[in-house]
């Protein structure tokens, strides 16, 4: 139990240090460097060694790490775990400064993905992401990570006295009701380039050096363990940093595998994955093919390797809600701390089928991990994930799994301490089977 709690606390720390996809990749890189993984560039020729440990970063927000197996990919296949680095929230627009009442300074934002909007209200928020600065040469900008690690804004609610319908299904307008309040200005002139000046001060550069940015709001409050027995994890970005943390932690334990073992951390899952760093790209297929080519194989060997491979698409699953149990399927009702969930869907919004589900369930049984099943109520449309999208680019047998969660897409999500440890155990078993 002590190790289980420690692993949960490591996840909380990982989430807090990863307020954006860019920071998540940087944290993963730190973990991999400690284990002597070597970073590869997509523009270089690759000369991979059996047993070698490598990783590739794309766009600063997606990462693929792998350990080269001793066997040929066309004979042993690839063992792949997939997750995503992004979460729903708010992205800051260009020239975002807006004033109100001649004294309030706000930031203009747009919604990223599908967050539960009202959970972002009345919380101390900060700003993080990446900033692009002028480089020494045109076309070679200096890209810096930014984390203004203090509460700098808040999205204030309106009082119940001014909005009597607030507890009766009041709908928030994404353009007018959810803009973060940055502070008080005494003069209209203060509004101009306020954010740029804040960024410049944080990065110790001149505002004129800033070319552009990809910045997001995030919850400044750290995650924590909750529950009478501290059996629950409350944190932002559990979806899907939980799977990233479990998967990377499992991969670094791999020793001398026959099959090449891989962890894929895609970006932009929450907005459809249709970017060059998303699951709906050639990123995974290209890296798999380059591994085959580096080992002397050709196109046929690559296709044979795909046919003998397996993907575990790991993304959060819905747990039955303690107050709203009727929202769950009548017979498939995953519980928090009840084990890893295998997700299935008749309309194939998940890749799991009877064969892939049985394979994963047997792996879990061998690891001493309980499994549960999730299907949507037949009268409700559920979400999807990276599994079906990546399957359109690489023809590989796949299963969709996740830890059971409550409050998915809230600014603070909830999962079980035991489930996070169970996911890790299952992925260790998968890599070593």
Task: Describe, in plain words, how this protein is organized in 3D.
The longest helix has 16 residues, at 417-432. The mean pLDDT is 95. Strands 1-2-3-13-4-14-18-16-17 form a 9-stranded mixed sheet, sandwiched between helices. Strands 11-12-20-19-15 form a 5-stranded mixed sheet. A 3-stranded antiparallel sheet has the order 5-6-9, with no helix packed on it. β19 (404-406) and β20 (413-416) form a beta hairpin. It has 10 helices and 20 strands. The protein is globular and about 70 Å long. The two termini are 25 Å apart. α1 packs across α10. With 433 residues, the chain is an alpha/beta fold.
Keywords:
433 residues, alpha/beta, 9-stranded mixed sheet, 5-stranded mixed sheet, 10 helices, 20 strands
Structure, briefly:
This protein is an alpha/beta fold and 433 residues long.
Shape verdict: globular
Low-confidence runs:
none
β-strand amount? 25-35%
What would you report as the Rg, rounded to the nearest angstrom?
22 Å
Order of helices and strands: HHEEEHEEEEEEHEEEHEHHEEEHEHEEEH
Major sheet size, sense and barrel closure: 9 strands, mixed
Gap between N and C termini:
25 Å
Mean pLDDT: 95
| Widest sheet, order of strands | 1-2-3-13-4-14-18-16-17
Q: Structural class of the helix and strand makeup?
A: alpha/beta
Helix content: 25-40%
How many distinct beta strands? 20
Tally of individual helices: 10
